[in-house]
Amino acid sequence: MQEISNEEYARLVDRRSPRSPLLKNMVCAFVTGGLICAGGQGLLSLYGVLGLPEEEAGAAVSVTLVFLGVLLTGLGVYDKLSRLAGAGTLVPITGFANAVASPAMEFRTEGFVLGTGARLFTVAGPVIVFGVVASVCYGVVLAIFQ
Fold this sequence. Notes:
- The structure is a single chain.
- The chain is mostly helical.
- It contains 7 helices and no strands.
- The protein has 2 domains: 21-90, no CATH class; 107-146, no CATH class.
- The longest helix is centred in the last third of the chain and has 34 residues, at 112-145.
- The termini are far apart.
- The mean pLDDT is 83.
């Protein structure tokens, strides 16, 4: 067996690895992310027409997109879409919903509490903690200056 250095191995891997279709990947990500954002804008307009004030309509859009992201993850559609679209599905809020739901789906065979419940917070936990701490700090600052 021949010994090779890390640099030689890296060059060998680089020569043998298939090239990624960079332009195609960028276009797919751009179009998919744009469609998700356009859908969100459409929902915002729809909720506005239904009589929600702009701020509440924005919250309703976020909830709707998170729900759709989790639903599509549960149905196995989101993962197929993200293989095609790449970062276009990961950057919007639907990507966060997918990142929270995927570990829970993966470990559901371990039980509801120790599998789904525990894994649900592997990604969401830090976000929730930061959100709670930030809102408490904001509340304290607001209480002091009002």
